[in-house]
Amino acid sequence: MEIDRRRFLLGSLAMTLGLSTLKRPVRAGGRDLSRAAFASAVRVGSGFALLILDEAGKMLREIPLEARGHDTTVHLESGIGVMFARRPGDFAVAFEFSRPSPPKVFRTPADRHFYGHGVFSNNGQLLYATENDFDNARGLIGIYNVKNGFSRIGEFPSGGVGPHDLHLLPDGKTLVVANGGIETHPDAGRAKLNVTEMQPSLAFINREDGQIIARHELGRELHKLSIRHLDVDPSGRVWFGGQWEGALDHVPDLVGSASLDRPLKLLEMTPDFSARLKGYVGSVALDRSGARLAVSAPRAGCIVYFDTAAERFVGKSLIVDGCGVAPRGRDGFAVSSGGGEFRAASPGREDVGLAIHQELAFDNHMISVARY
Q1: How many structural domains comprise the chain?
Q2: How distant, in Å, are the alpha carbons of 124, 160, 225, 298, 300 from that of 318?
Q3: CA 20 to 30 Å from 242, out of 94, 218, 253, 265?
Q4: Is 8 inside a domain boundary?
């Protein structure tokens, strides 16, 4: 398959970053950055930053951002991470999470913007990012060369409109992309331009040639359920959370699973429980065993948990504006909130408040950068 705009070349790439500095300095505060465990975008006063935290939620490093950030991806073996701008931002920041080396800012072409998520290839040589070809209402996966300062070397279609989260399956070859189905354009800000014609999908794509291997959609009656956030278990099963763009008096189930050869299946919840989530899932994360799935519902002020084998609801935690969730330890989670809270949480056990950062607000996503 021909890849649009630029020829996509795969070669033997090293992991050295060509780094350039931001306008404001990095602050590491003299702390031991080898203790890095989590990363999250935050709002600090009137500005924005990327934070690196330890296992207890203590701040180890702050990297200022020019605007609001969204999600981070890391390549653990190389110690490199990338924070993406919130849609419709056009910048991303590459950093080394275990030492205070200068970060690097790189950008999309002028006719593209990021959708907030990305993933490294297993060898760390390439970075894939969800993007918007906004003048043509076309979802794309942008491809970036890590060695050459994250230069953009190609792109291929995402299989739908409004791609958001994406992950790499355990085979190291297949990308899974949540095409939310929502058309947007920077000239319209964050307005949703096609809610009545949405066609969300989950696309499985060969990262080496851009070929779409499989594409799953929900039934027409659920076309307003935007598939947004993903996690993948060791077997390759994909777990997703959605955001309902229809009337809130008829909210469907918002969480489900699928695989390359198995269609989308929603996890059944009682109608009143689905309604209490207010139609909005903010993040999804599996624990390290893959036995539990945590799903944040910030508008409802809770985290809900599912047993992945039984595919059933097993508990919840209450936290005001809690959205970021990431695996912590073997079978638990770390949870962050817009109120600066950082907690250890898991179904069946009482949450433990580990830190409160009153001077900041955690943003939508938090990821683990620890090697367990």
Answers
A1: 1
A2: 37, 35, 24, 10, 9
A3: 94
A4: no
In tens, the pLDDT along 237-289 reads 999 999 999 998 889 999 999 999 999 999 988 767 777 899 999 999 999 99
On whether residue 158 sits in a domain, the answer given is: yes
CA distance 64 to 47: 8
Closest CA relative to residue 159, chosen from 113, 108, 217: 217
Domain that holds residue 258: 33-368
Separation between Cα atoms, residue 159 and residue 205, nearest integer Å: 8
Which of 13-17, 160-164, 202-206 is predicted with the least confidence, judged by mean pLDDT?
13-17
Whether residue 24 lies inside any domain: the answer is no
Q: Give DSSP secondary structure letters for 53-110.
A: E-TTS-EEEEEEESS-EEEEEEETTTTEEEEEEPTT--EEEEEETTS-PPPEEEE--T
Report how far residue 31's alpha carbon sits from residue 79's, in angstroms, rounded to the nearest whole number.
17
Residue ranges in the chain assigned as alpha helix (H):
271-276
Q: Which amino acid is at 355?
A: A
